[in-house]
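Most newcomers find our protein records easier to grasp once they have seen one. A record pairs a protein's sequence with a compact description of its fold. An example says more than a description, so a record of this kind follows:
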Amino acid sequence: MNNSSRKQYIPAYILAGLVMLAASYSLPRWLPGDFVTAMYSNSHVTLTENQELELRAYYTQRPNFGRYLLDFFTFNWGYSYAFLTPISGLIAGALPWTLLLMGTAHVLSMVFGFIAGVEAAWRRGAMIEKAGVGSMTILQGVPELGIGVILLLFFAFHLEWFPAAGGETPYVNYTTGRWVLDLSHHLALPLVTLFLAYFPGNFLLARGSMVMLLGQQYLETARAKGLPPIRIRYAHAARNALLPMVTRFGLRIAFMVTGVLVVETIYAYPGLGTLLFNAIAMRDLPLIQAIVLFSSLVVLFVNLCLEFVYGLLDPRVKHAS
């Protein structure tokens, strides 16, 4: 696929973005329940019928679709019903936490999973390769919830080595270096949980891709030239096994919020996943709407970028018609 062919996909991505905007405008209103019910159902405050109708009318009003588009592209996303705060500020405050957690977990699991998978495939049939495949297959079947609960109970509650909740110690003014250490201390358990959840899939995918390439003629040619084994392994074989890893990385980005929702909720980590969980619990429709739409458009943008990354990684993709 050449550059002009890839540019033809841009209108399709723009159309998909408009469809997402239209869906986000209408779908949240189909959710059962509403903010008034969630807010006052367990409250000691008793509303009269007129008060309930007035509140429900107030919280269900919405602009027309044209105004909705204008507000979205000017970052005027309204106010959260539950937090009484501009939604754009809530997302801006939670997004760095999610990017730190998810980005670090994705990059580390992809890099180490890829290297381990390549090395295992290169030693195909050896005991270490069989042990790696078996253990990673078992680990892949353990859900994030199970990993998170085990780590939380053992390292946070039993050993008390790490904090059980939060992203940083509140109400404490640290120096920059001490703050980074405190941040890393709170990040450790959620990060390890996601790393252990993502690593097996990356390992197995990299190994499978490499096994399919080991018998290729160009590797035999490289060996005949007397190239060092590590150069053959990574410069020739592993590079061609990288495309499926990039595709997996892009697909994982699609779960930017939902993929970390469970882990962030377990550790009360102040990211988008926790924010979305709280918004759903309180039927805060404007906040739900904004988080889902923002996440969807980020996924769309990342996939568009991957169209160009493929061409950089594999010339066959770049020059294909």
